[in-house]
Amino acid sequence: MIAQGSWHDDWAGLHVAVLGLGKSGFSVADTLCELGANVTVFAQSASAQYSELLEVIGAKLVLSDSVEALSQLESIDFAVVSPGFAPSHPAIQWLGERGIALLTDIDLAWRLRDKTSKIARWLTITGTNGKTTTTELVTHMLQTAGLRAIACGNIGNPILDAVRDPEGYDYFVLEISSFQLHYSGEFNPVASAFLNLAPDHIDWHGSEQAYFEAKAKVYQGTELAIVYNAEDSKTLQAAEAADVVEGCRAVAFTTAMPSVSMVGYVEEFLVDRAFTTERYSAALEIADDSDLAAIGVVSDHLKANVAAATALARAVDVEPAAIKRAIASFVLSPHRIQRVIEHQGVLFIDDSKATNAHAANASLASFDSIVWIVGGLLKGVDPTPLLLEHGGKLRAAVVIGADTQQLESLFATHLPGLPLRVISGERVMEQAVAAALDFAQPKDTVLLAPAAASMDQFRDYADRGNQFQAEVRRQVMK
What's the CA gap between 168 and 173, in Å, rounded? Predict the structure, then answer.
């Protein structure tokens, strides 16, 4: 492991290999060049913008991520890996065999967090689903309380860009993926949350157990409170095994009535029974369903995210009034159980962010009669439980994706009488929406909740959702 543990240490002259050139990869290269390190970026491809910027900052670019390319470097003091590189990648294995330290941008940010005199405290969040919404909501709660906070990590804002902000921050609220956690070393958040666990990214991690073990690392070294899901035994298991700072509390969130040391709901009220001195005899009211309704559909999924965010905010002493204002004024990011339009009694919902079965389950549970648009890259996860649990509320299904055979077979086996349309070809979303309109009747919900990743037919989940919304508006309004 490298000796440097501060922005103010001597990084000049170190030879660093950076694997990957997305937003986070470039921020790593930019930061290390600012510190005087010798940086070589390895990537299979690079945009013209990043290629030019790397030249400007003084980093080298190698358009390959092969072992042969890495071995051309005379010296590598450490490497920084982007989440796209699975443990099975030959370059990762080659570095490991040579004992070369592997860091993520999260690890590097922890070492460099003292750049400014205002050193941010960290709140960390992981889970199969709900990470982004919870991260953004916690950030909004902190900001509403007058604190300078930023959502970063696996959420669009590279954490190293936040570290280098000259004003500094009171809090970094980090969404951390299982990929980042797999490689991560030691960092000490003041509070951390493990929202839920369901099979996902098995193709990357190699097994469900490896996926769970990566997620569980979010709790390690937490100072004040670890937040787990009272309705998810795996998050409790991780909490019980976590190596935390002495005195750190375990606090649960629930969509049901909370016990002591929980945040949850009493009828329509969100309440705190964890961070109030009267928690053994009373509950502190935070907000109610009308506040949550300002965000979107008041589903169990939303209620869980709000309760988890509230627990994290209360762990760092945000007052209930600020949390209530934040909930009522929070704007949900697009493509997360997003209402598109209601036309002739049919509601259209865009949950393109449901890129796995667990997320799709939350959507399907939120509506009563559904025309389901489903399919894409299943990432090694079997969607059969979704069909078994929600088949009774499906009006019809529209299957999309470059490879539809698995889903076709599952529907034929488990729901043989269900009307089904399989879409292939170039104008996939145009045809999918048209098929959904053919099936839908008044009081139905046309639900885009694909339970799969999008890159087989779309640029990303946002592109998939945007195409869905555009086609819905075009076809229902013509």
Answer: 14
User: Can you tell me the distance from the alpha carbon of 112 to that of 104, in angstroms, rounded to the nearest whole number?
Assistant: 13
At 50 the three-state DSSP class reads helix
Taking a C-beta distance cutoff of 8 angstroms, is the pair 54, 61 a contact?
yes
Would you tell me how many other CB atoms lie within 10 Å of the CB of residue 25?
25
pLDDT of residue 358: 83
Of 93, 322, 368, give the one whose Cα is nearest residue 206: 93
Long-range contacts of 416-421 (CB under 8 A, 24+ apart): 418/391, 418/394, 419/395, 420/396, 421/396, 421/397
Q: Is the per-residue pLDDT at 196 higher than 90? A: yes
What is the sign, positive or negative, of the torsion defined by CA atoms of 408, 410, 416, 418?
negative
Helix, strand and coil percent figures for the chain, each rounded to 5: 40, 20, 40
Q: What is the DSSP code string of 331-353?
A: -PPTTSSEEEEEETTEEEEE-TT
pLDDT at position 359, please?
86
DSSP, collapsed to helix, strand or coil, labels residue 252 as strand
pLDDT tens sequence across 300-317: 999 999 999 999 999 999
Are 168 and 116 within 8 A, CB to CB? yes
Rg (CA), the chain: 23
Q: Which single residue is written with the structure tokens 């013509």?
A: 478
* Tally of CB atoms within 10 A around 8: 11
* Single-letter amino acid, residue 44: Q
CA atoms within 13 A on the CB side of 262: 19
Percent of the chain with pLDDT over 70: 100
| CA distances in angstroms from 105 to 43, 60, 85, 93, listed in the order given | 16, 18, 13, 19
| Calpha distance 267→292 (Å, rounded) | 13
Question: Tokens 């956690």 sit at which residue?
Answer: 181
Q: Report the run of H or E that residue 446 belongs to, with start and end.
A: strand 445-448
- With CA atoms as reference, report the closest residue to 310 among 258, 238, 247: 258
**Do 199 and 211 meet the contact criterion of CB atoms below 8 Å apart?**
yes
Length of the chain, in residues: 478
Query: Phi and psi of 193, rounded to 5°?
Result: -140, 135
